[in-house]
Structures are given as structure tokens and as C-alpha cells.
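Q: What would this chain look like folded?
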Amino acid sequence: NTVRIQYRDAAGQSSERVIWPFAMAFLSEVRLLAAWCEMRGDFRHFRADRLVALEDTAQRYPAQRHQLLKRWRAQCITDA
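A: My prediction, written as C-alpha cells:
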């Protein structure tokens, strides 16, 4: 499902976004949520400790999770 979040960036600026979450990473000091961001029209990584609010919209996103992962991996390899 898509999720509506309120997110605070490193500078303290808040934004509201609708995202399509598909993966979560647990790093040594942070947890990252990988998602397609409708506002940016691109993949984004959101730090879990900067999520101010999260609401399930009950709307399914149009892509399947494995397709998003495949596109995300391809983009990460291209951007590296």
C-alpha cells in the first residue's frame, strides 16, 4: 500500500509525501526506508528517525514490490 508520511530532513524542514515503500535497511546507526516518492518521481531513502507521522492510505501502488526492487537495483548500479 501507499503510505502518507510527514518527514523532517537534516535541516529540520518538514514535507508531506506519498511513498511506495518496498525495503528497509538496518545500518549501524540508522534505519533507512527505501521507497518510490510520488512527489519526486524517483526512488528515495528516508531515515526512520526523521519520520514524524506515517499513515497507510489503503491504496495499493500500481507496481509490484519485486518490480520496484529490480528498478531500484538497476538505478543504484547505474548511479554508482
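The first helix runs from residue 65 to 79.
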